[in-house]
Amino acid sequence: MSDDAGLFAAGDAGAGGPAGSAASAPPPIDPSAPLAVRMRPRSLEQVIGQDHLLRPNSPLRRLVEGRGGSSVILYGPPGTGKTTLANLVASSSGRHFVALSALSAGVKDVRAVIDDARTRQIHGRRTVLFIDEVHRFSKSQQDALLAAVENGIVLLVAATTENPHFSVIAPLLSRSLIAELHGLDEQGVATVIRRAVADERGLAGTVEVTDEAVEDIVRLAGGDARRSLTVLEAAAEAAEDGVVTPEIVEQSLDAAPVRYDRDGDQHYDVTSAFIKSIRGSDVDAALHYLARMLVAGEDPRFIARRLMIHASEDIGMADPTALLSASAAAEIVQKVGLPECRLALAQATIHLATAPKSNAVISAIDAAMADVRAGGVGEVPRHLRDGHYAGARGLGNGVGYTYAHQARAGVVEQQYPPDELVGRDYYSPSGHGNERELSTRLTRLRGIIRGTT
Asked: 49, 219, 342, 410: which has the fewest Cβ within 10 Å?
């Protein structure tokens, strides 16, 4: 279950069964509940961050205030307020609220909610259906929602930590607003921490947290408000003298969280940033993203494959040894494995990031393939055709071919491409690295071969 799931918290009014719960008002505060649950905002005024979504008269704000009629998919990393906003929608007046978790609800549960919502609609009451981790719903489960959402039988509020464009079916996307929540900035997380220290629902001033400790918790939280409160609560429990210091924070937590889902959009985003950092020759950023992938448990074979592709796509002949470096790293990944293979991946990353760059290789092969797909093939010149079988010479195959090694320079004037493609240049070396010298050599080669020198 996601970090947002289960935070409709013990004490939800009208809890019906394992699949869902209904409520018309925020649940009472359970003093034994986790700090993150106790400190959940009870009004829009208490929400920190997401100003881009909650500006006056915005669709999401109207929905939270009970005035909006658009279904919405809340998309963002853990601890950014998805469940909080759903709870605020639940407490808006005149609406029946039902929560389902995609981990436990099936098509039958969805249809039961829709049937109940249809009955309530007849009596003038709208139903808000909250689905947590909607990306875990199968296509058939998502299909079951379509008609009810389109006809306004239910107002859907769905939450997901994954990019909905990858995990939610297109018809449901087209019927919903997509609201992307952002991780809190450092000031926002610090505000969350200090509010929890002072608030009666939180620690009620029973501990003191030093400014340095606040800074450490902010760093460890990584923009996740819930994570910051979890760390704060653990540190407060360990503070025997009532003062939370950086040392106590460090003792309370093993490592900072890494936002990365090998099957979700973080996988694609971090991988994209990794490759673009190498392409941009920022070796430090490239190593950062490599570290994020490794710490998060990414398959090192995947990283090695990306490096091999990049070596040809963005470096190519500007530094031909880049491909050798990437290939060697891939072999070490296979033969050695983690943790030691991280060194080879780092070495290849450094090599590729600091190498001169050229996309001439991919441009050349793509241009050649585009001509072939467009019908630019033509007949192979007869002097280049296979002349080793009986009767080949009688057809003119291989007749007139000049053996290049017989020439002093090892290059002779001779037509190699089909007639239709004579003079067509595909490879255009850059002026970077090895290609600077190669460009001059290529001009001489083409001149000899085409008889233009």
From this structure: 410
Residue 379 DSSP class: P
- Rounded CA gap, 37 and 102, in Å? 21
For residues 432 and 356, the answer to whether their CB atoms sit within 8 Å is yes
Tokens 């205030």 map to which residue?
65
- Give me 139's structure tokens: 């296509």
Residue with tokens 């090998």: 262
What pLDDT does 26 receive? 52
Q: Which two tokens stand for residue 269?
A: 């985003």
Confidence (pLDDT) at 190: 95
Q: What is the CA radius of gyration of the chain?
A: 31
Would you identify the CATH topology of the domain 373-450? Answer: post-AAA+ oligomerization domain-like (1.10.3710)
Residues 37-91: tens digit of each pLDDT: 899 998 888 999 999 999 988 888 888 887 877 889 999 888 888 888 888 887 7
- Report the alpha-carbon distance of residue 224 to residue 193 in Å, rounded: 11
DSSP class of residue 15? B
- Contact, 225 vs 189, CB < 8 A? yes
pLDDT at 421: 87
CB atoms within 10 A of CB 335: 10
Domain extents for the chain?
20-180, 186-252, 265-354, 373-450
Query: How confident is the model at residue 20, as a pLDDT?
Result: 44
Is residue 391 predicted with pLDDT exceeding 80? Answer: no
CB neighbour list of residue 141: distance below 8 Å, 6 or more residues apart: 102, 105, 106, 107, 110
Residue that the structure tokens 């469940």 belong to: 83
Q: Which CATH architecture describes the domain 20-180?
A: 3-Layer(aba) Sandwich (3.40)
* pLDDT band, very low/low/confident/very high, at 260 (cuts 50, 70, 90): low
Q: Is 36 helix (H, G, I), strand (E, B) or coil?
A: helix
Whether omega for the bond prior to residue 28 falls within 30 degrees of 0, making it cis, is: no
Encoded amino acid at 12, one letter: D
In the block, tokens 């595909």 appear at 426
CA 437: distance to chain centroid?
Answer: 40
pLDDT greater than 50 at residue 12? no
Tokens of residue 434, six digits: 């090895």
Sign of CA dihedral 138, 143, 149, 150: positive
Report the Cα 138 to chain-centroid distance in Å. 20
